[in-house]
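Hey, can you fold this one?
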Amino acid sequence: MIKRILSIILAVLAAGYLVFSLVSLTGRSSDSTCKGLDVRIHDSLDYNLLKPESVISLLQRSGLDPTGRDMSQADLDSMEHVLLKHPLVLSAECFRTSSGTVKVRIESCTPVVRVLASNGADYMVDSRGRILEHSGCVMQLPVATGHITREYAVTHLLEAVRAINRSRFWAAQVEQINVTSRGEMELVPRVGNHIISLGTGEDVDEKLDRVLSFYENGLERIGWNKYSRVSAAFAGQIVCRKRK
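Sure. Predicted structure:
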């Protein structure tokens, strides 16, 4: 009988503790007010095109800033969804913290070329092939000029830039890409007073390898300013024009 009474007492105490714990947790949750947003943006090239205040403003306009609300009302999924629609956002993650803030972690896009087209257009193309309106930021990007449509920029031009960036040498050497009215690409190098012609934007990797081999086995012996034009437009060949 005594054992039975002790069992009942223990069961009642356990139930009481459980109810107390649930009430405590509920009370603590209702008093947990979001103190603000902690926004940090990772930019692999430190261009700082996207700023924390712009992110906060976007969430405020969307009615998703949890500041001053109960932490349970922070709609993290919707916040991430809105942020991912921004053209400068590559990835976004939002999560609550025990200190009462909502952290927002963003990876921003990476511009790879600036386009100054002959029709007056001025914009950038990022590594994903998305067009970004030029923000006035000073960036060390190769510049593409000439007859460039937006479709050309995110296809042929982007592929050429990717090929250039795959080579440490060419990434440092190419200063400007010009597209002629016939759709042929010309590179303006930082070193050497000549133009490199790639013809159409096909097989750029192979063409650049050919020019680099010519640099190493030809120009270094005869001088970088002997030719005004070095063309890799034709398969398996390097055609040069002597400077007058």
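The radius of gyration is 30 Å. Let me know if you want another pass with a different chain boundary.
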